[in-house]
Amino acid sequence: MRVVLGLGCDRGTSLETVRKYMGTPAVAEAAALLASRGELVVEKHKYRGPDGKNATVSIARLNDG
């Protein structure tokens, strides 16, 4: 199975700003789905680093067809 990762990070951008440009407040999920043209396998997973900053990741199955 080939997959695509969608990544997001905590940059102080409001969810409404992201929604305006991406059509969804969930950047990691949207990036994975857009790049893969497939289906979401792992919904947004949030990680807080030792520096206190957040990162998110989502995984989508790559649609080869």
TrEMBL record:
GO biological process: cobalamin biosynthetic process
Protein name: Putative cobalamin (Vitamin B12) biosynthesis CbiG protein, truncated
Domain CobE/GbiG C-terminal, chain residue ranges per copy: 16-60
InterPro entries tied to this protein: CobE/GbiG_C, CobE/GbiG_C_sf
Organism encoding this protein: Methylocaldum marinum
